[in-house]
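Fill in residues.
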């Protein structure tokens, strides 16, 4: 009997999952809500580039073209992903413009599932006790239900469910006479439409990660100092001017097996714990070496944005990104204004930072505050119990590391 496997999402993970399913002799069906494959790379700000060298961001069985630079831009990354799909003939398995609205399991009572020590009661991927029902909605608003034997979720965490801060009544966007959007809406526009949308507007951006700074640079380039872009942030971060601190490749310091020994890891054992403790001076030296390079190349002290936490904390959480090339040039010209605040509220004219009386006058407030990946994952299940098994509580039965199941998980 032919096994059917549903893959939700046609981004990087979805394509890899599809290829793997085919290699095992099963029949995949990939549901993609958008009209094209590529996941988050289908819509980005104009200046987006890969933040990791291409040598560390590639399919193991499909190398990058030699002509592509070490840090490809959005068009080059998307072309690479599309070439991968064509090379392995994956597109024939993809249902574009098909959004998964609900996933449910049929054939077994939920109470019985909760009592299982292993999936299906046996630990086998394909349970004889039930099937998965995938409810989808097509672009013409028609709906379908597909029944499959197994489901692979490749949803991605950086889309669809925006993380919007909550405000007390009367202090939120309803008090503001201008427009309020999330960065997700901004990147959904094409480059020209986005530029026209912000042109002539006083823009305030909430956030201080890569998304926020890229959009701020774009807004400032369009409007200049006549309508400066205000960046409202709570915590500064370590941004890289380049990946060659003092001429030494960052990968030589941190992306190798020796660097793994510098960090304490859960369950690493007594000897490794002692070793990482003994190597703490090396860890400290590496951090200060990189931090000194960043402060030498970027005017962090001038703008009062030197982080209080160490560079190690940033790179350990995979949060290292490059600063937009012209960001501080625009700040020097007055086209970008940096404003630190531990909180803020809306008013009629714009936003008021905590501890200040005067608002940052705005026509548009843009939240670059990330996404709620857990909620997106949880809400796709028709049963609340299934969502809670994976996420949603500290005692979740399947607390996935970066939401990934290891091959040995039962």
């Amino acid at each position: 009997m032919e096994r059917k496997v549903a893959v939700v999402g046609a981004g990087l993970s979805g394509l890899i999952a599809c290829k793997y399913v085919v290699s095992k002799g099963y029949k995949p069906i990939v549901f993609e809500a958008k009209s094209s494959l590529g996941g988050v790379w289908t819509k980005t700000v104009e200046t987006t580039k890969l933040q990791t060298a291409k040598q560390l961001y590639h399919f193991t069985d499909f190398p990058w073209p030699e002509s592509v630079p070490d840090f490809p831009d959005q068009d080059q990354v998307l072309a690479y992903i599309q070439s991968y799909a064509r090379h392995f003939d994956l597109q024939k398995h993809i249902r574009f413009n098909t959004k998964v609205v609900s996933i449910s399991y049929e054939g077994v009572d939920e109470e019985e599932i909760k009592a299982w020590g292993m999936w299906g009661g046996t630990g086998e991927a394909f349970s004889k006790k039930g099937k998965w029902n995938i409810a989808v909605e097509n672009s013409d608003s028609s709906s379908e239900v597909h029944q499959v034997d197994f489901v692979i979720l490749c949803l991605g965490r950086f889309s669809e469910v925006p993380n919007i801060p909550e405000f007390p009544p009367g202090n939120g966007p309803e008090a503001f006479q201008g427009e309020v959007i999330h960065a997700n809406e901004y990147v959904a526009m094409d480059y020209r439409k986005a530029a026209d949308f912000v042109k002539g507007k006083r823009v305030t951006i909430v956030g201080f990660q890569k998304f926020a700074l890229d959009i701020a640079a774009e807004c400032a380039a369009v409007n200049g100092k006549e309508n400066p872009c205000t960046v409202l942030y709570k915590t500064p971060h370590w941004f890289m001017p380049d990946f060659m601190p003092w001429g030494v490749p960052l990968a030589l310091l941190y992306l190798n097996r020796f660097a793994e020994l510098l960090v304490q890891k859960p369950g690493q054992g007594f000897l490794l714990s002692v070793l990482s403790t003994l190597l703490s001076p090396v860890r400290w030296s590496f951090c200060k070496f990189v931090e000194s390079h960043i402060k030498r190349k970027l005017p962090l002290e001038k703008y009062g944005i030197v982080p209080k936490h160490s560079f190690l904390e940033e790179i350990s959480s995979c949060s290292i990104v490059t600063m937009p090339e012209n960001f501080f040039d625009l700040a020097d010209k007055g086209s970008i204004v940096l404003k630190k605040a531990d909180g803020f509220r809306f008013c009629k004219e714009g936003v008021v930072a905590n501890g200040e009386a005067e608002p940052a006058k705005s026509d548009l407030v843009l939240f670059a505050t990330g996404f709620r990946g857990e909620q997106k994952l949880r809400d796709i299940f028709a049963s609340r119990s299934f969502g809670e098994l994976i996420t949603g509580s500290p005692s979740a039965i399947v607390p996935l590391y970066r939401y990934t199941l290891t091959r040995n998980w039962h």
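The radius of gyration is 24 Å.
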